[in-house]
Design a protein that fits this description.
mainly alpha, about 375 residues, three-stranded antiparallel β-sheet, about 45% helix
């Protein structure tokens, strides 16, 4: 049998009368036995009649009904994942990609009337993927982030299974990034000089910076962000030493005298060569990619691709390049450099595949001396 009583608050004027007084509005509690076990808990009600009905219902059923938790909404799940990602210390570029995915997912859910995260099953996720504009490797990375998000929701108990895990990977077509030829590099450097004529006011300064950036990408193998945000203190004489922003890998690379002279001739922007340090690095890289580099007809990925040729340019065709002299740290090399090396004749026709290509790539990393 269950007994209903009021648990008086400290501010209740009838607190001294104890359980016998029930005409106040203090919370109702229940005490007794139901289904063979003792119960003493709050009913979550202040109305005596509703509390009495709920107690009689429990006695008739012989058990206590627990209220089901409110389903988690799509927006709440996205916010929870983002807060956890920030607490884990993920980098800002990674957080930006997740926020972009969540914005697209919430728009899709709102347009289709899907409020809760449990409403997004495999069929809805397939439709969501059909709305993506990107493809190839970009679509694969987005799918991996979507799987990580729903795995987080599954671990939180908001869904029973991960529907994104059942989505098949898109077909990936790897397009090799071939290097610039010698004639193309000559045209690019010549275009840097023409830049000063097209823009008389600040053209000479821009031309010097463009020439220095092109040569740095050509002879160091750095990513575009590492090149744009390069600090002057990282260059000592003709030695370049820094940690890459993407992976934190140490890069130690001697530069040819022509590159060092071009860097020293570039206008001073403070502690950096190509950046004032006041804006977001992503914005600075985007400005170079959209304006300066694009005007020269230069792709930043291709600008890095001549790097293996620079390493192996003295190796006879069909033979492996000599072992590098610098092995303390290794610069970052494009994953398609094996194709570039094979196209340049630095490797044997079958050496750009499998383990042999990986070994050659490891031998090439770390040295950028010579011309």
């Amino acid at each position: 049998m269950l007994t209903i009583y009021r648990r008086h608050t400290r501010a209740c004027p009838h607190r001294d009368q104890g359980r016998a007084y029930r005409r106040c509005k203090c919370p109702t509690w229940i005490d007794g036995f139901v289904g063979g076990r003792e119960v003493r808990q709050s009913l979550g009600l202040r109305d005596w009649q509703k509390a009495n009905e709920k107690a009689r219902e429990w006695e008739a059923q012989g058990k206590i009904e627990t209220e089901k938790p409110e389903p988690t909404t799509v927006k709440a799940a996205c916010n929870s994942f983002e807060s956890d990602a920030v607490a884990r210390g993920l980098r800002e570029p990674t957080l930006y990609k997740y926020r972009l995915l969540f914005r697209q997912l919430q728009d899709f859910a709102r347009d289709n009337g899907l409020l809760y995260i449990a409403d997004l099953d495999v069929d809805w996720l397939r439709r969501f993927r059909e709305s993506w504009r990107h493809s190839n490797l970009s679509a694969l990375k987005t799918l991996e982030r979507l799987r990580a998000f729903f795995r987080f929701c599954q671990d939180g108990g908001w869904i029973n299974q991960n529907p994104a895990q059942k989505l098949k990977n898109p077909r990936i077509i790897y397009a090799p990034t071939l290097p610039f030829t010698r004639d193309e590099m000559v045209k690019i450097l010549a275009a840097c000089d023409k830049y000063s004529k097209e823009y008389p006011k600040a053209g000479r300064a821009h031309a010097a910076r463009l020439r220095a950036l092109v040569l740095l990408l050509r002879y160091s193998g750095l990513r575009i962000r590492d090149a744009v945000t390069l600090e002057r203190s990282k260059l000592t004489g003709d030695k370049l030493m820094l940690y890459t922003a993407k992976t934190g890998t140490p890069v130690y690379c001697p530069l040819p005298p022509a590159v060092v002279q071009a860097l020293e001739a570039a206008p001073v922007c403070g502690q950096f060569f190509f950046w004032r340090g006041q804006s977001n690095p992503k914005s600075a890289v985007g400005d170079w990619q959209r304006t300066e580099i694009v005007r020269l007809g230069e792709g930043c990925g291709r600008a890095r691709s001549p790097f293996p040729r620079h390493l192996c340019g003295r190796a006879p065709a069909g033979r492996r390049p000599a072992r590098p002299r610098f092995r303390a740290a290794r610069p970052s090399v494009n994953p398609h450099h094996g194709e570039a090396l094979r196209a340049l004749g630095a490797l044997a026709p079958g050496a750009a595949r499998g383990r042999r290509a990986a070994n050659v790539g490891r031998r090439c990393e770390g040295y950028a001396g010579g011309t």
